[in-house]
Amino acid sequence: MKFVFIRDLDGEVRRKPRKDRIPISLMRGTRRIPQRILRLAETKPVGSRKENTELTEVIKKIHEDHKGRLGIDRLVAELAKLGRQHSPRRVRRLARAAGLT
């Protein structure tokens, strides 16, 4: 069995959310999970949420100014004019989340 320690958990621990019942330090001992993934799980986002909300507000403003006629590529170009270089993929994701496309 891949993860023997999961099978051995008692009933009370099994009812907890997975991230609480299986500590990453215990998973680190298994060979199935690459170490780089475990390191990513331990890190916290620095300021990406705050930056994304600010960028979403700018995207909404541009969208309103142009009456919703701009596509993603033009939105990226407008952001570049404002000195904000972002990938079309990121702009598309944030615009969709804001309900603009």
How would you describe what is shown here?
The chain has 101 residues and is an all-alpha fold. The protein has two domains: 4-42, no CATH class; 48-97. Helices cover 61% and strands 0% of the residues. The model has no long low-confidence stretch (mean pLDDT 77).
Topology:
Elements: H1 4-7, H2 11-14, H3 18-21, H4 24-27, H5 35-42, H6 48-65, H7 72-81, H8 88-97
* Count of individual helical segments: 8
Largest sheet: none
The helix/strand series, from N terminus to C terminus, equals HHHHHHHH
Unreliable segments of 5+ consecutive residues: none
Domain module tally: 2
- SS class: mainly alpha
Helix content: 55-70%
Key descriptive features of the protein:
101 residues
Quick structural overview:
The chain is mostly helical and about 100 residues long. It has helices at about 5, 10-15, 20, 25, 35-40, 50-65, 70-80, 90-95. Helices cover about 60% and strands about 0% of the residues.
